[in-house]
Design goal:
- This protein is of the alpha+beta class and 506 residues long.
- The protein contains 13 helices and 13 strands.
- Helix 6 runs antiparallel to helix 7.
- The radius of gyration is 61 Å and the shape is rod-shaped.
- The N terminus is likely disordered.
Length: 506
């Protein structure tokens, strides 16, 4: 991990730019070190040329034969740290400043024809050949001592020739010192420039580093971070574009996730519908199989003349009729369930008296209730104005009551109760008897499901009643349910008080 971190650190643009800057500055330092000495030497050689030329002009202004002539020559030589030689037209030495230690000794110098100038003993030097390409100016070397001199030669107004000597070593010393100082200053300036450049690079690349980290988060589908305000230049515009891209991608992905969830739900619903369709077909086939077999068997017996006894034939016909009625009930319930689930019938709610409807249903079922030895207590008030589809709510209430009659046991007591809330009435139908298993609670509302297998075809019960209740309540957008209570079971459903309930639930 450390190696990877170091590699990433080296690959940052800030590090690269700083490394390039250091390389450029280092190269500049090397070039300065290599070329500073020759360049400085040329500069100082040119300055020496100008100085010696100035000395020559100063000497040319002196008047030979005056009392101070030699003193002035010596003073000029000492003041400018040079050696002077004046040569006669015949080549003999007229004056040299190097022979005396003072102005007096130079003043009484006696020239002779045998005395020759130092200039004739020096040989041209190849050192710094390109650095002294000036008129009357050259570098000459004393062979015996290998000392090199800048030599400036010029004619005087008296017809004599003057040679002015200045040691090259003096210039070299100055060049070496200046070169070292120049190098130290260059190193200091380069270091300072490196620090300044690093700060500038860091500030310049900081937005790029932040945008790089931000795009990595975007690649990981994290769009919480945003770029800061980097100004109005191209980097600032890039930061704004990245923020826009991040917001757009975040919105698009959220929308895509929502659509994927809806698609998953739709796929699950389709699978559930497909499974329900298969189960429905299987259950219908199973429920129709028995009555068809019975009808077929007894009809075949009648046709075959199985008996001449009118009572036997009547019994066969009655059985065929009963089974066909059961089939008719099943088909009617299937059609009703199909219409409700497909919402083929329009939903037109209206006001009706639910209390009167409950009393009427109990009256129609009174004979069955008496034969079963059941006591019924109706606590639903009359009148009870409700808002819904009257015929559908009647089916719900009838299914609950017939279901209670069918499963009532123990004390054999049934009770209908109405509870009022803000915008609905809750109708509950209680019957004493055995509790419903928790495993059966969720499946009670499925088609053809019967928790009590003992009650079935003999009572024309096919497990469709509660699924019809479920569809009716879903269409009414009202709640329904079942729960075990003390001594029995209670089924509930809700019905709206008035039309405002559907206005508020649109």
């Amino acid at each position: 991990m450390k190696k990877l971190s170091l590699k990433n650190k080296k690959s940052r643009i800030r590090t690269k730019l700083f490394a390039i800057d250091v390389c450029v500055l280092a190269t500049l330092l090397v070039l300065i070190s290599v070329f500073s000495k020759p360049m400085l030497f040329r500069v100082f050689a040119f300055q020496t040329y100008r100085d010696l030329s100035s000395v020559s002009e100063s000497i040319n202004t002196l008047i030979p034969g005056t009392a101070t002539y030699y003193f002035d020559l010596y003073s000029i030589a000492v003041r400018n740290n040079v050696d002077l030689e004046i040569v006669n037209p015949d080549g003999s030495l007229s004056y040299t400043s190097s022979s005396g230690n003072s102005a007096a000794s130079s003043e009484h110098f006696a020239s002779s024809g045998a005395s020759r100038a130092t200039y004739d003993t020096l040989r041209p030097s190849d050192s710094y050949k390109n650095a002294v390409d000036y008129d009357n100016f050259e570098i000459r070397k004393k062979e015996a001592t290998s000392i090199e001199f800048f030599v400036y030669s010029a004619p005087l107004q008296t017809g004599e020739t003057i040679h002015i000597y200045f040691e090259v070593a003096d210039v070299e010393n100055i060049v070496n010192v200046a070169g070292r100082v120049y190098t130290l200053i260059s190193v200091a300036m380069i270091m300072l420039m490196a620090i300044v450049f690093y700060i500038i690079v860091a500030r310049f690349t900081k937005p790029l580093v932040e945008m790089n980290d931000l795009t990595k988060d975007m690649a990981a589908l994290d769009f919480n971070k945003k770029c800061g305000d980097y100004g109005r230049d191209e980097i600032g515009e890039l930061g704004k574009s990245i923020n826009i891209l991040s917001t757009t991608l975040d919105t698009t992905l959220k929308d895509l996730k929502d659509k994927n969830k809806l698609l998953e739900k739709d796929i699950e619903r389709r699978h559930a519908l497909d499974n329900a369709r298969k189960s429905f077909i299987s259950n219908v086939s199973h429920e129709l199989k028995t009555p068809i077999a019975i009808i077929s068997g007894y009809a075949e017996g009648v046709c075959a003349g199985i008996s001449d006894d009118p009572e036997v034939i009547k019994e066969y016909c009655q059985i065929i009729y009963d089974e066909s009625q059961k089939m008719n009930v099943l088909v009617v319930e299937l059609l009703e369930l199909s219409k409700l689930e497909s919402k083929a019938q329009p939903f037109y709610p209206q006001y009706f008296d639910l209390g009167a409807k409950a009393a009427s249903l109990l009256n129609h079922l009174s004979l069955q209730v008496e034969q079963s030895g059941i006591t019924v207590l109706n606590r639903i008030p009359q009148p009870l104005a409700c808002y819904g589809q009257e015929d559908k709510i009647e089916i719900v209430l009838k299914n609950y009551i017939t279901n209670a009659i069918s499963h009532c046991s123990g004390k054999k007591h049934i009770e209908l109760v109405c509870t009022e809330s803000k915008d609905k009435f809750e109708i509950s139908v209680f019957n004493t008897g055995e509790h419903i298993n928790d495993a059966d609670m969720a499946e009670l509302w499925d088609s053809f499901y019967r928790a009590d297998k003992a009650h079935g075809r003999s009572e024309n019960r096919f497990g469709l009643g509660l699924s019809i209740v479920k569809s009716i309540m879903d269409n009414h957008k009202c709640r329904y349910g079942v729960k075990n209570v003390r001594n029995g079971v209670v089924f509930t459903f809700e019905v709206a008080k008035d039309s405002s309930y559907y206005d508020n639930n649109e």
